[in-house]
Design a protein that fits this description.
A hairpin with a 4-residue loop joins strand 6 and strand 7. With about 240 residues, the protein is an alpha/beta fold. The protein has two domains: about 110 residues, ATPase, nucleotide binding domain (Nucleotidyltransferase, domain 5), CATH 3.30.420.40; about 120 residues, Nucleotidyltransferase, domain 5 (2-Layer Sandwich), CATH 3.30.420.150. The protein has nine helices and nine strands. The strands form two sheets. It has a five-stranded mixed beta sheet. It has a four-stranded mixed beta sheet with strand order 8-7-6-9, with helices on both faces. Helix 6 packs across helix 7. Helices cover about 40% and strands about 25% of the residues.
Length: about 240
């Protein structure tokens, strides 16, 4: 058994998972010891400036100090960190990576859109007891990964659509004006039309799996929850 920690440096949130792992590959079994999520908005201004904002990096590093204490307290054997859309787009990501390494002792891995899509699919469909093929849609802060497959990814796309990117580009009012929402919806539809033309087999999917906070928040709204409930918002139906 190996005790591992995984850190996800996302565009909107920074996540930690600590687990004991028995076995390897598809046969691995996890016992979760700690799971945390903090909104750090690492992607602040990246879409326009193509650089990570100093305040955003500071927020991320502050959260990682908390995570480092958790990792040390649980005597983790191996720690891995991964960075996604915001870091992919930023010309100064090495500045962030140096700061992360100084806190947690490991340099983050920069995932390509294709790698992010593949990992999303494998994590979402492991032990999933629903009809295949699966269409996995991972809506992040800076990008959205769309993957079709059965026991492995067969085709995928990563598009520059996410909650942070769209908010900064189009939604400047609170609540958003009708014309702002219309512009954002138009961009999303254009991207999705491209995806439907370029990913073979999308129409053959029998189960849609939505990932990440945007999806669970939409589920909470649809359920009419006055207070967010992870258990209810992540249940398939």
């Amino acid at each position: 058994m190996t005790r591992v920690a995984a850190i996800d440096l996302g565009t909107n949130s920074t996540r930690l998972l600590v687990a004991d792992v028995e076995g390897s590959g598809a046969d691995a079994r996890l016992t979760i010891l700690d799971r945390r999520m903090r909104i750090t908005r690492l992607g602040q201004g990246v879409d326009s400036a193509r650089r990570l904002h100093p305040d955003a990096m500071a927020r991320c590093i502050e959260v990682l100090h908390e995570y480092a204490e958790v990792i040390a307290g649980l005597a983790v054997d191996t720690t891995r960190a991964a960075a996604t859309s915001a870091a992919r787009d930023a010309s100064n990501r090495e500045e962030l990576f140096d700061g992360v390494a100084a806190v947690i002792g490991t340099v983050p891995e920069l995932l390509s859109g294709e790698e992010e899509a593949s990992l999303s699919f494998l994590g979402a469909t492991c032990d999933l007891d629903e009809p295949a093929p699966y269409l996995v849609v991972d809506v992040g802060g800076g990008s959205t990964e769309i993957v079709i497959g059965t026991d492995r990814p067969e085709a995928s796309a990563s598009i520059d659509v996410g909650c942070v990117r769209l908010t900064e580009a189009f939604l400047h009012s609170d609540p958003p004006r009708a014309e702002e929402l219309s512009a954002a919806v138009t961009v999303v539809r254009d991207h999705m039309n491209d995806v439907s033309r370029t990913i073979a087999g999308v129409d053959a999917a029998r189960t849609l799996v939505g990932l990440a906070g945007t999806v669970t928040t939409m589920a909470a709204i649809e359920l009419g929850l006055a207070a967010y409930s992870r258990a209810r918002s992540t249940t398939s139906g």
